[in-house]
Specification:
Elements: H1 2-11, H2 17-26, H3 31-43, H4 49-63, H5 68-77, H6 82-97
Helix pairs in contact: 2-3, 4-5, 4-6, 5-6
Length: 98
């Protein structure tokens, strides 16, 4: 049941690990159950915060023209690590400059 809930939640649009964790806690699953499920989903690449951040930046900055600082803050709010966010932003900024 836990995996069904998790897959159903991430099926339509990619989610961050934090988003999924919150949703599963709201459904009443224990910390242990959620942690185990998330590790399996990460291993199978159903949850990938780096890929999520790259897609999000591409969508919001490249396609929609939103300011990078706003998108960066939104990623942090979604639980994406600061160092990972900075790494991806630097990659995109160097691509934009070239």
């Amino acid at each position: 049941m836990l995996f069904r809930s998790a897959i159903k939640y991430i099926y339509r649009t990619p989610k961050t690990e934090q988003d999924l964790r919150i949703k599963l806690f709201q459904k009443g699953y224990s910390s242990n159950e959620v942690a185990n499920a998330i590790e399996i989903l990460k291993h199978k690449k159903y949850i990938d915060d780096e890929a999520f951040a790259q897609m999000y930046i591409n969508s919001e900055v490249i396609k929609k023209g939103k300011p990078m600082i706003v998108v960066s803050q939104k990623l942090r709010h979604k639980g994406i690590d600061k160092d990972l966010t900075t790494k991806i932003i630097n990659k995109y900024e160097s691509e934009i400059i070239e």
